[in-house]
């Protein structure tokens, strides 16, 4: 059976993207595009001079790249309000806070809000930690947060949330895109990161192993008109786990489907987050991470290949690497005990 026209177009798009998703030059271009568009949006919102905003942003970005070798090295002037004595930046994102104990920041992956963590696992964490779960821009109650944005912006959002919560030092656990945000947070704001647990994630471009065509096809899929959205989402996420896990634990995916549907991530949020991922680059910066780091990756992860976890362990100084047999991408659901153990080390 030949593919439907929409599927054929999607397959051609995936084939065309292939050579570019591992290119640092492309990542730099996407980064510059995001920052320029963000500057124009701010100029429009404030009634400012668009041309001046674009020229100023482009000049600043290129100067930063020339000095540092990569962008995203530090916040640009005007991108975040400066901190003055007694002044806290008001976060542009929403967060959830519960539990008791030392602070723990949870950063979720692409399209997933702070609502989409396994409930039983989360309750266990709350017994030992003051848990902060961020709705990344584009998701949950942060769907109207400023866009477009970079991974660096999402890391600064995390810093702002901790600051607004009167937290000076926190353990940080990030999964998938959340692991990218966690790395960027540890690079940009190292003093506030007590320990780092990076789960099912990858290093910045070009050090990563790109997603396969099958993985890209899975993430880019759109629900058929004759199929309920919740059913489509459950089926899609079930395909990201290790062999046999979804069939053995249907209740987990019922819960996940309910969580996602509570505050669905719109298409614009998905696209803006994907742009942020595509713009993330500069693996040499990982040498700046000094927080104790544990990397956890499943050997059956169909979205972010296990080679990425191994590579990340080589790039972050003194990182500890844990590879889980027969585990896929949803490590918090599939192997939550391992993550709790990694936090307690």
Q: Would you spell out the secondary-structure blueprint of this structure?
A:
Elements: H1 5-17, H2 24-46, H3 50-68, E1 94-99, E2 103-107, H4 119-126, E3 130-135, H5 151-164, E4 170-175, H6 177-188, E5 193-199, H7 213-220, H8 229-238, H9 245-248, H10 250-262, H11 267-279, E6 293-298, H12 306-315, E7 320-324, H13 331-334, H14 336-344
Parallel strand pairs: 2-3, 2-4, 4-5, 5-6, 6-7
Antiparallel strand pairs: 1-3
Helix pairs in contact: 1-7, 2-3, 2-11, 5-6, 8-10
Structure description:
The protein has two domains: 23-79, no CATH class; 96-210 and 265-344, Alpha/Beta hydrolase fold, catalytic domain (Rossmann fold), CATH 3.40.50.1820. Helices cover 46% and strands 12% of the residues. It has 14 helices and seven strands. α1 (5-17) crosses α7, α2 runs antiparallel to α3 and α5 packs across α6 (177-188). The termini are far apart. Residues 66-86 have low confidence and may be disordered.
Highlighted features:
globular; Rossmann fold; 345 residues
Explain briefly what this protein structure is.
This protein is of the alpha/beta class. It has helices spanning 5-17, 24-46, 50-68, 119-126, 151-164, 177-188, 213-220, 229-238, 245-248, 250-262, 267-279, 306-315, 331-334, 336-344, and strands at 94-99, 103-107, 130-135, 170-175, 193-199, 293-298, 320-324.
The name of the CATH topology of the largest domain is Rossmann fold
Beta-strand residue percentage: 5-15%
**Roughly how much helix do the residues carry, as a percent range?**
40-55%
Work out the helix count.
14
Number of domains: 2
As residue ranges, the low-confidence spans are 66-86
CATH-defined superfamily of the largest domain:
Alpha/Beta hydrolase fold, catalytic domain
Oligomeric form of this entry?
single chain
Mean pLDDT: 88
Write down the overall geometry: globular
Sequence of secondary-structure elements = HHHEEHEHEHEHHHHHEHEHH
